[in-house]
Amino acid sequence: MAPIARLVFRPRITGKENIPREGRVILASNHLSFIDSIVIPLTAPRRVQFLAKSTYFTGTGFKGWVSRQFFTSIGAVGVERGAGQAAQVALDAGKDILESDSAFAIYPEGTRSLDGRLYRGRTGVGWLALTTGAVVVPVGLIGTEEIMPVGSKMPRIRRISVKFGEPIDVSVHGAPDSGRARRKATDEIMAAIHELTGQELAHSYNESPPTTVVQRVKRAIWWRELR
């Protein structure tokens, strides 16, 4: 797929030399579109794995088979989405990938930015890097939301930019069991992503709006505890 995608979409790719060709590496990227998880594996110079919703792998019939084959072929690993224990299970899956000396892609913002701003990074990326000793290559995606805006079913032909930044060694910030070290490592990674993309900073976490009474109550309790 890579040669065809490059011919059709003609992406501007810079910094591929910054990605180590072997060993543990985390590609930490901003997140603007569903297509991001296809763009990164197709433009990186080595096989990249990332986490995807488990529903992409559990469908039935011909459509379910096509979905499983496609997401498996581009390096996706199915996990249950959610907070708390589900989030830790997802991080553990990423840890297992890195400990096999593979490349792993992650979106520190947690979910897509619907307004184009760069949101605060969640410290899971810092924990992964500090726990596994992986180097972090920041990734800046520009224009992917024009290919597949939220709600669209088919991609549009638009030219995008993919920027791979210089590797970051976050081990200087401390041990993975230190919340301060995880926060500082994550902030350094997000600053590098911002330098690549130039996005407006949101200075807050990207939260999906609660859809049920239980979710709204949990969100209110969580914010109160933060204060």
From TrEMBL:
Signal peptide: none annotated. It comes from the Bacteria. GO terms for cellular component: plasma membrane. One of its GO terms (molecular function) is 1-acylglycerol-3-phosphate O-acyltransferase activity. Pfam families: Acyltransferase (PF01553). GO terms for biological process: phosphatidic acid biosynthetic process. InterPro entries: Plipid/glycerol_acylTrfase. Residues 25-144 form the Phospholipid/glycerol acyltransferase domain. Keywords: Acyltransferase, Transferase. PANTHER family: 1-ACYL-SN-GLYCEROL-3-PHOSPHATE ACYLTRANSFERASE. This is 1-acyl-sn-glycerol-3-phosphate acyltransferase. It comes from Cryobacterium adonitolivorans. The lineage of its organism: Bacteria, Bacillati, Actinomycetota, Actinomycetes, Micrococcales.
